[in-house]
């Protein structure tokens, strides 16, 4: 069962991460790529790369035959699926075996059994693993589900039986909301997993999401590598993960570890897997699901155990014994991981797309990334930019190091959740180790998720940075038409940020008086290079990163916040189309999977008009007024661009 060439049936950061271990082991790696990923970092990192199709995942990364053919063409003897895509697809594991290829993961039988939430839960009940009250039978008529829901009691969770990652999952507070939840969960589940089978489960309000990393080999050995607390989530998808769990005790870890190992033994599990539990306020825990693959958040486990989980996966797939017993596992220190996404927290964490014009990470933390300066965040795949993970001898050290690393990460070109991550890590709730799955709802509102307004001192700094950048770019006299420069007198340059007008007066070499709104600042330039600057503002030091995408614009980053400033003299006023009441536009690039209204329909505020699917999630398009559908401007099944008009409503 030994092999020397591994094809990675994935992309992005996980493909890059797997390739590094493959190289360290002296093995050869093969990448696969779609049209959108032709120039991606994982393609360049591999020893060989094979093109597998067009950009949509269902025409490339999800096509089993294309992956198998790529393995045969490249001479790979084994396939590592990473996570997502085909990693938990039992048919893919079977296809690998039928083609004489080694699947680096568990058996197809284990994937099939544990990948179906209903079947897995029935097996856990038989094995004595604690589970929640629920419904997991095969009968799926709405009438039966409504009846079972009434017996379970509200609130409850509707879940896709074949699902994961929060897709096909709905929290239902009362019987009135159940029919809509069943309908939307079914549609999302069918689109994401090819199955619309649902289960019902009693909801635990404000639990912790705690998972246990398990590992098994082909010789019957199964151990666990401690737990991870993944309670901070948006849309049921994890954002911050850490280990150990802040409230874990030795006794609780022993019990949860034993339950996780028992769950794995019921299916003769081989390889890396994760058993997920809900931990309630009383200290009781309940089986949630089992992920039969490597988890996104595995770096925190690696940092506190000193183990390379990908190396262990490969060794086990080669038929070797784990070489570890439970007594060999020692947890050292604390690790916290933050998922840096291209998304807009102020708009329900809606995914963002765009070109990354500059990206640089600090030293002293672990960074797993699959993009770089010049990469595009495409609408076809998950919008993750990087996982940034910090280790410390204690939890607060790890937390503070992660905050600093996020602030020191320089990123221009796409909207991200970076400021939200910093704000979350700095809340009293997270600092105290008290975060539950209700953390975001309890600690963040639309107001504090909105972009921070540019204060007058930052507006002044931005304007000076724009002026100096333009001066440096000119290498001579700055054009009067651009900056209002006159050689015989001081410089007065108006800038605009939202409603703040900023005037810069140069007093001498790198010394400025700046009027922003009703305030005046004395600013001096102390250091400058192609992307960073250091200023003194009224005797207070300020460091920032900057980028000048055009003569009329300057982008600056201070801490975790980015700002964009317009030079009022360098750009003429242009009329811009505004999105007013009744003008319904696409919130992001994606597929318009369903339209629920036609011309002439009467709608109310909040009426569901359509569904746009992008980056593995479905986004409801809702009416913003009470009125009538005047025009339908798109068709179901079509691709729509961000901000494309979809409906015109009249009140």
Automatic annotation (TrEMBL):
The Biotin carboxylation domain sits at 2-445
**Record-annotated ATP-grasp domain positions:** 121-318
Q: Name one Pfam family in it.
A: Biotin_carb_C
Cite the SUPFAM superfamilies for this sequence. Glutathione synthetase ATP-binding domain-like (SSF56059), PreATP-grasp domain (SSF52440), Rudiment single hybrid motif (SSF51246), Single hybrid motif (SSF51230)
**Domain called Lipoyl-binding: residue spans:** 576-650
The UniProt entry, under SMART domains, shows: Biotin_carb_C (SM00878)
Write the record's keywords in alphabetical order, separated by commas.
Answer: ATP-binding, Biotin, Ligase, Nucleotide-binding
The Swiss-Prot or TrEMBL record annotates one GO molecular function as: ATP binding
Give the domain of life: Bacteria
Q: Which cofactor does it need?
A: biotin
| Protein name as annotated | 3-methylcrotonyl-CoA carboxylase subunit alpha
Query: Which species is this UniProt entry from?
Result: Litorimonas cladophorae
């Amino acid at each position: 069962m030994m092999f020397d060439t591994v094809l990675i049936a994935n992309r992005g950061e996980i493909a890059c991460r797997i390739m590094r271990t493959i190289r360290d082991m002296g093995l050869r790696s093969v990448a696969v790529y779609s049209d959108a990923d032709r120039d991606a970092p994982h393609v360049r990192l591999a020893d060989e790369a094979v093109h597998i199709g067009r950009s949509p995942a269902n025409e490339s990364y999800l096509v089993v035959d294309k992956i198998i053919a790529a393995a045969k063409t490249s001479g790979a003897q084994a396939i590592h699926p990473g996570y997502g895509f085909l990693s938990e697809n039992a048919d893919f594991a079977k296809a690998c075996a039928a083609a004489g290829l080694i699947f680096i993961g568990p058996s197809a039988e284990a994937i099939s059994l544990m990948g179906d939430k209903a079947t897995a839960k029935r097996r856990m009940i038989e094995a004595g693993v604690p589970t929640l009250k629920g419904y997991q039978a095969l009968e799926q008529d709405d009438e039966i589900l409504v009846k079972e829901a009434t017996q379970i009691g509200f609130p409850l969770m509707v879940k896709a039986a074949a699902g994961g990652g929060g897709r096909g999952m709905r929290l239902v507070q009362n019987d009135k909301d159940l029919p809509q939840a069943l309908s939307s969960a079914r549609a999302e589940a069918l689109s994401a997993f090819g199955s619309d089978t649902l289960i019902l489960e009693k909801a635990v309000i404000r639990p912790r999401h705690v998972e246990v990393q398990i590992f098994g080999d082909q010789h019957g050995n199964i151990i666990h590598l401690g737990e991870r607390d993944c309670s901070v989530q948006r849309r049921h998808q994890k954002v911050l993960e850490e280990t150990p769990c802040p409230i874990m005790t030795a006794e609780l870890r022993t019990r949860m570890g034993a339950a996780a190992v028992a769950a794995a033994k019921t299916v003769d599990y081989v390889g890396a897997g994760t058993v997920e539990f809900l931990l309630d306020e009383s200290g009781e825990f309940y089986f949630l699901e089992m992920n039969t693959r490597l988890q996104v958040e595995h770096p925190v486990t690696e940092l506190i155990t000193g183990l390379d989980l990908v190396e262990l996966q490969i060794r086990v797939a080669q038929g070797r014994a784990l070489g570890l017993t439970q007594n060999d596992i020692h947890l050292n220190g604390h690790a916290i991981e933050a998922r840096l996404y291209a998304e807009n927290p102020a708009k329900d964490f809606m995914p963002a797309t765009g070109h990354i014009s500059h990206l640089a990470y600090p030293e002293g933390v672990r960074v797993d990334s699959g993009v770089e300066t010049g990469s595009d965040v495409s609408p076809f795949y998950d919008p993750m930019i990087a996982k940034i993970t910090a280790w410390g001898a204690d939890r607060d050290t790890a937390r503070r190091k992660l905050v600093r690393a996020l602030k020191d990460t320089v990123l221009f070109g796409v909207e991200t959740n970076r400021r939200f991550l910093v704000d979350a890590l700095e809340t009293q709730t997270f600092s105290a180790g008290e975060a539950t799955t209700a953390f975001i709802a309890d600690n963040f509102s639309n107001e504090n998720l909105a972009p921070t307004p540019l204060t007058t001192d930052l507006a002044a700094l931005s304007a000076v940075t724009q002026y100096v950048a333009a001066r440096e770019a000119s290498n001579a006299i700055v054009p009067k038409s651009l900056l209002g420069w006159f050689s015989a007198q001081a410089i007065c340059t108006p800038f605009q940020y939202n409603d703040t007008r900023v005037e810069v007066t140069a007093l001498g070499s790198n010394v400025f008086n700046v009027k922003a709104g009703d305030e005046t600042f004395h600013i001096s330039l102390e250091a400058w290079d192609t992307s960073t600057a250091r200023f003194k503002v009224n005797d207070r030091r300020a460091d920032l990163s900057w980028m000048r995408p055009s003569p009329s614009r300057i982008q600056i980053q201070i801490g975790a916040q980015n700002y964009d400033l317009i030079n009022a003299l360098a750009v003429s006023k242009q009329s811009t189309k505004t999105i007013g009441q009744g003008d319904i536009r696409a919130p992001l690039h994606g597929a318009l999977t369903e339209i629920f209204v036609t011309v002439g329909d009467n709608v109310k505020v909040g009426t569901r008009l359509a569904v746009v699917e992008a980056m593995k999630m479905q986004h409801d398009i809702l009416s913003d007024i009470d009125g009538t559908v005047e025009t339908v401007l798109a068709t179901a099944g079509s691709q729509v661009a961000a901000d494309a008009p979809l409906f015109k409503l009249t009140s």
